[in-house]
């Protein structure tokens, strides 16, 4: 193996640069040439490559976003798009590819591996944290801390005005950000994708809280596939509850900002692990971290198997939000 490529794809996540930096340093230490592919699969199809050296990744570990840029690429979902990508891989004489992203990225990577025979290794980075085969995805911790900071700030004003607040956080198919920031922020209620929105029950629980002396409350809502859904939920809850309420949608604020210690260290570990995996001939795997150990999961499993929300954390939330 002499020349490898690296790209970031799908939604950006804080800590992606830590992965790129670590992979570049590990590759150069093993005398590999490494090329960055700009804008994810879009750049792969267009052949938009740039050589990466120590200068390219200098002063990047603290930056959110991705220096390689990213995209969601509908063209890659069709075979014609992937055929163009394979042509680029052959033309550029790449011997291996590191793909940084989430479920959608690894779905595409599985097809690309089958169709190209190219050694591929995935690195999980997604604020949603919904990738099977790793306890945490890079970027999740930063996003959850961003949501927590917002909840803390909202609580100040909610308490001052004795209001009910709906704080909407990201999480398309899962509620990892909602659950963890809800526990850490002492939220009263949680609404997460895939679980029924029991408005009457939520209103009753909030009413019980007000009955025992609470003067304000926070409901954390994961946006699911309907960003802005909190406005509708708030209207529904108000039918049962006589308390002033407000909605705060956090949106893409959660995707930016400097990565936390956790995301920088996790990203650094996984970036090095990806290069080592390629050199060891472990192709078609995603590197991850489970209970502190580096693990390898077949790319197909990362998006076909579902990573459930931790039941112990859900139970903890229920107990502490009583
Ligand atoms: O990257 C994951 C995510 O932030 C989801 O939480 C959210 O539903 C989606 O991406 C938003 O995507 P976009 O930035 O393309 O609007």
Number of helices: 11
CATH architecture of the largest domain: 3-Layer(aba) Sandwich
Average pLDDT value?
Answer: 97
> What's the CATH topology name of the largest domain?
Rossmann fold
What are the segments in which pLDDT stays under 50 over at least 5 consecutive residues? Answer: none
Query: What fraction of the residues are assigned to beta strands by DSSP?
Result: 15-25%
Strand order, largest beta sheet: 3-2-1-4-5-10-11
Helix content: 40-55%
Biggest sheet layout: 7 strands, mixed
Radius of gyration: 21 Å
Please write the string of helix (H) and strand (E) elements: EHEHEHEHEHEHEHEHEHEEHH
Number of domains: 2
- CATH class category label of the largest domain: Alpha Beta
Number of strands: 11
The ligands bound in this entry are: 6-O-phosphono-beta-D-fructofuranose
Structural class category: alpha/beta
Distance between the termini: 57 Å
Outline type:
elongated
Walkthrough of the structure:
Helix 2 packs across helix 3 (79-91). The mean pLDDT is 97. The protein contains 11 helices and 11 strands. The chain is elongated, with a radius of gyration of 21 Å. It has helices spanning 16-29, 40-46, 79-91, 103-116, 140-161, 176-184, 199-211, 229-238, 261-279, 299-304, 311-320; strands at 3-8, 33-37, 49-51, 96-101, 120-124, 164-169, 189-191, 217-222, 245-249, 285-290, 293-298. The protein has 322 residues and is α/β, with parallel strands linked by helices. It starts with a strand and ends with a helix. The strands form 2 sheets. Strands 3-2-1-4-5-10-11 form a 7-stranded mixed sheet, with helices on both faces. A 4-stranded parallel sheet has the order 7-8-6-9, sandwiched between helices. 6-O-phosphono-beta-D-fructofuranose is lined by residues 11, 72, 126-128, 170-172, 255.
């Amino acid at each position: 193996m002499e020349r490898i490529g690296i790209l970031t794809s799908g939604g950006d996540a804080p800590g992606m640069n830590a992965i790129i930096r670590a992979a570049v340093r590990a590759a150069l230490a093993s005398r590999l040439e490494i090329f960055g592919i700009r804008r994810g699969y879009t750049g792969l199809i267009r052949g938009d490559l740039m050589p990466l050296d120590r200068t390219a990744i200098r002063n990047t570990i603290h930056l959110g976003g991705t220096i390689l840029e990213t995209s969601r690429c509908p063209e890659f979902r069709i075979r014609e798009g992937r055929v163009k990508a394979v042509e680029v891989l052959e033309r550029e004489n790449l011997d291996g590819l590191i793909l940084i992203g989430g479920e959608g990225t690894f779905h595409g990577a599985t097809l690309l591996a089958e169709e190209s025979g190219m050694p591929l290794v995935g690195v999980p980075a997604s604020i949603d944290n919904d990738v099977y085969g790793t306890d945490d995805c890079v970027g999740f911790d930063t996003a959850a801390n961003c949501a927590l900071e917002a909840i803390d700030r909202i609580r100040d004003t909610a308490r001052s005005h004795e209001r009910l607040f709906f704080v909407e956080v990201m999480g398309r198919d899962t509620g990892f950000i909602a659950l963890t920031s809800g526990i850490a922020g002492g939220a009263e209620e949680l609404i997460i994708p895939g679980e029924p929105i029991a408005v009457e029950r939520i209103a009753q629980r909030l009413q019980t809280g007000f009955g025992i002396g609470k003067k304000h409350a926070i409901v954390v809502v994961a946006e699911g596939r309907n960003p802005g859904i909190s406005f509708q939920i708030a209207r529904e809850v108000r039918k049962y509850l006589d308390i002033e309420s407000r909605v705060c949608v956090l949106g893409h604020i959660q995707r930016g900002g400097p990565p936390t210690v956790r995301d920088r260290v996790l990203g650094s570990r996984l970036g090095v692990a990806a290069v080592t995996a390629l050199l060891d001939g472990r192709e078609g795997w995603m590197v991850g971290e489970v209970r502190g150990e580096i693990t390898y999961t077949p790319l197909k499993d990362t998006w076909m198997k579902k990573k459930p929300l931790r039941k112990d954390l859900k139970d903890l939330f229920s107990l502490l939000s009583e």
